[in-house]
């Protein structure tokens, strides 16, 4: 069984690598032999431009400085969204009164995309960093809240009833049943929110930024530099993949008990 799983994993790795190589080949041929090359850089040109941006500044920083600025903004907004989203999700999911008060307003605001709040963010917070944190906060907050609310509502009611019959207080039920049962949902919400927060950094950095990967893209668009635009896009994709992988690894370690129960 173990050997079979290893063979399956190796096959997946090989197929994944082959698909990436096929995509790059298709991209290269398209830019080299068709009109696409006039509006899009080839993968080879993009690779060398990315390496160049690692030691030659684009604006105030190299690519590493822009990535650091973007990541710091995302982490600030994501941390605040995590705290607020976990608290609100648990309150709505475990308290009928909390659900009655908060859920109608939450459901009213949830469909609004974060980019629609840019003008309001500028009016409320000005053109500084707070407006960017606000946009990133919104992109993560709703994803975290709805996942944790779902987790708290999915707790086995028979288990809660049995705990009440044994004399457990509401606080004890919350800390020993509701909260542990919601942990897998919490990590799912955090995973989704981290990805959406990172994606929202482009919109956030459109609010008068002087650095960041979002600034790279918008500034490249202003000077019609497709290579610079694609360097920014590639950076967003690579860092997003790394952040997602880290979150999956943390979830696998801390929620291993949940996977054992399911198996």
Strand proportion, as a percent range, falls in under 5%
Please compute the radius of gyration using only Cα atoms: 23 Å
Please identify, by name, the CATH architecture of the largest domain: Orthogonal Bundle
Low-confidence stretches: 259-263
What's the tally of helices? 11
Q: List SSEs in N-to-C order.
A: HHHHHHHHHHH
What kind of sheet is the major sheet?
Answer: none
Task: Give the terminus-to-terminus CA distance.
Answer: 15 Å
The CATH homologous superfamily of the largest domain is called MetI-like
User: What's the CATH topology label of the largest domain?
Assistant: MetI-like fold
Query: Would you state the CATH class of the largest domain?
Result: Mainly Alpha
* Number of DSSP E strands: 0
Shape descriptor reads globular
Average pLDDT level: 83
Task: Classify the helix fraction into a percent range.
Answer: over 70%
Structural class designation: mainly alpha
What count of domains describes the coordinates? Answer: 2
Task: Tell me what the structure shows.
The protein is an all-alpha fold and 263 residues long. The protein has 2 domains: 1-40; 41-262, Orthogonal Bundle (MetI-like fold). The chain has 11 helices and no strands. Helix 5 crosses helix 6, helix 6 (129-153) packs antiparallel against helix 8 and helix 8 runs parallel beside helix 9 (213-222). The longest helix is centred in the last third of the chain and has 35 residues, at 170-204. The protein is globular, with a radius of gyration of 23 Å. The two termini are 15 Å apart.
